[in-house]
C-alpha cells in the first residue's frame, strides 16, 4: 500500500476521556489496530485551546490517520 496525503489506514477509533488529579478533563481519540492488540503507543499533545490550539489540527489528524 502506498501511503499518500489523503490515506487513512484502518483502525478502531473511539473517543477517550482522561481525568487529572487536579480535576481537569482531557479529551482525545484512541486509535487501535483492527483485529490485533497494539504493539506500541504514541501520545501527541496539542497546544492549549485557550491559546489558539485545537485537537482537530490538520497535522494531528494526518498523524492519527496513519
TrEMBL record:
Keyword hit for Hydrolase: yes
Protein keywords: Hydrolase
Domain of life according to the entry: Bacteria
Name by which UniProt lists this protein: Alpha/beta hydrolase
InterPro entries xrefs: AB_hydrolase_fold
GO molecular function, one term: hydrolase activity
Amino acid at each position: 500500500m502506498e501511503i499518500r496525503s489523503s490515506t487513512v489506514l484502518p483502525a478502531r477509533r473511539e473517543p477517550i476521556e482522561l481525568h487529572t488529579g487536579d480535576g481537569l478533563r482531557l479529551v482525545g481519540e484512541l486509535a487501535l489496530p483492527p483485529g490485533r492488540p497494539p504493539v506500541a503507543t504514541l501520545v501527541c499533545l496539542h497546544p492549549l485551546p485557550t491559546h489558539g490550539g485545537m485537537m482537530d489540527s490538520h497535522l494531528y489528524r494526518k498523524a492519527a490517520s496513519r
